[in-house]
């Protein structure tokens, strides 16, 4: 297996910069998700790692070896596309074994490696079926089998579950993670779906307009977002922001929000008048009758065991994820309790976290 290191990687299409000086390392056996909205540069990054796109500048190292200018076929990397092309006239066995056949591997070895791969993916019972009659999930497993059978140094996957319906997607997310736990292949996985990234990845790189906004474990990214963009992109519903303007003094430890003193999660450095925001996740808000911070109920969404209640405050809308054991009327005046040790603080102008 292999470590992938990306150094100052940049891709420019004429005067448009699609990937802007990225730096990250995927350690041997790690699963990295490149996460971000459409057009942020995920696929371009992946294609450069695969050798399908030449970087404008920067370097790609596989196990310490500079492969930036190596051909794709010389990189020992398997690429799993969203729209995988299986050979429709062939059986599952023929499709999975094809990469070995074209490498000239002896037939006996092909047979045993195809069967071993099929057992791993639990498609051994359909090895002699034609792929043209398979359902989406099995087709995806065959495509994965074709990638795994070569035992490449690493896997690159570009939205491989994109065409599956929701039910199959959930199953495949679990299966991909289980597969990763078993074979520990270094993997880079492109997705715009935060739930997929959170469920599968060891590390996530959140991208925005060609820039990696944050690189970290799913827990780091969820609990300590480096920017308002990351805080807003991750979580459903996303993090709430309470905006306020304040002239701040060194060492200031609290602010007044809607007339109520709220302790800050970080001690402020000297700043001129600045627009700041306190960030809080919906599950870190409670609604209680007696809290001094007040708001009026704007709407609620019933989710079974819990509900999302939207509350309008003087500093913006807040969404609270709370137990569904109480009904709220639209317009009802409620008290808002914030879990103080879960607050984040952001500078609205740069969007970056403070502290
Ligand atoms: P998506 O999920 O929509 O593919 P993405 O995050 O993978 O999004 P990329 O496909 O990497 O984004 O594209 C990043 C930007 O670079 C987009 O604005 C895209 O239009 C542009 N781009 C990609 N390939 C080319 C190209 N060959 N020529 C010009 N612009 C390109």
Question: Your description of this structure?
Answer:
With about 350 residues, the chain is α+β, with helices and mostly antiparallel strands. It folds into two domains: about 5-230, P-loop containing nucleotide triphosphate hydrolases (Rossmann fold); about 235-345, Nucleic acid-binding proteins (OB fold (Dihydrolipoamide Acetyltransferase, E2P)). It is built from eight helices and 20 strands. The chain has a six-stranded mixed β-sheet, with helices on both faces. The chain has a five-stranded antiparallel β-sheet with strand order 15-19-16-17-18, with no helix packed on it. A four-stranded antiparallel β-sheet has the order 2-1-4-5, with helices on one face. The model has no long low-confidence stretch (mean pLDDT about 90). The structure holds adenosine-5'-triphosphate (ATP). Adenosine-5'-triphosphate binds near residues 38 and 39. One of its GO terms (cellular component) is ATP-binding cassette (ABC) transporter complex, substrate-binding subunit-containing. InterPro entries: AAA+_ATPase, ABC_transporter-like_ATP-bd, ABC_transporter-like_CS, ABC_transpr_MalK/UgpC-like, Mo/tungstate-bd_C_term_dom, NA-bd_OB-fold, P-loop_NTPase, Transp-assoc_OB_typ2. This is ABC transporter ATP-binding protein.
Question: How many strands in all?
Answer: 20
Bound ions, cofactors and other small molecules, one mention each: adenosine-5'-triphosphate
- CATH top level of the largest domain is Alpha Beta
Q: What is the fold-level CATH name, i.e. the topology of the largest domain?
A: Rossmann fold
What is the number of helical segments per DSSP (H or I, 4+ residues)?
A: 8
- From the alpha carbons, calculate the radius of gyration and give it in angstroms: 25 Å
CA distance, first residue to last residue: 37 Å
What's the quaternary structure here?
Answer: single chain
- Level-2 CATH architecture of the largest domain: 3-Layer(aba) Sandwich
Unreliable residue stretches: none
What's the rounded overall pLDDT mean?
90
Domain ABC transporter: 4-234
Subcellular location: Cell inner membrane
Organism: Rhizobium tubonense
Protein name: ABC transporter ATP-binding protein
